[in-house]
Amino acid sequence: MTANLLPCHIHHNGSIDPVSAYWKPTDSTDNSKEAYFRGRKLKGKPLPLPQGYRGLIVERNPDKLKKETLLSSDDQDTNDDEVVPMETVGTMRVTGEFDEMVIWSHESMAAAAADPYVRSVEEWLKVSDKIHGFEDETNDKTK
């Protein structure tokens, strides 16, 4: 599956069928993708995820209120100092996975130096490698 990052905001969060009526990207000769969305030409830069990584599409579940009370040692009535205020607890649920992203731009392909999304994906992959990688005695980098 491929995730598409479009240079627009769509005010709809449900499903639409059939998607093929609105979205028909094609491959170009310069290792990019091309599509038209609502009459505007878009060029896309494919960014495959490195081996060992997977992309997740998550959706936020509705917040729930959580209330905790501290128990006193002699089980007396609790006073206001022992009640922790209610806080919202949100969770995320996985709704899909992808192994490639396409970063779309108007008229021209997104460049790593200029596009904040391309740059941030590449930077986060480097940070992840540093966090999850280690060097063994032979100075070979291993995950």
UniProtKB/TrEMBL annotation:
It comes from the Eukaryota. Coiled coil: none annotated. One of its GO terms (biological process) is RNA catabolic process. CDD domains: RNase_H2-C. GO terms for cellular component: ribonuclease H2 complex. This is Ribonuclease H2, subunit C. It comes from Cordyceps fumosorosea (strain ARSEF 2679).
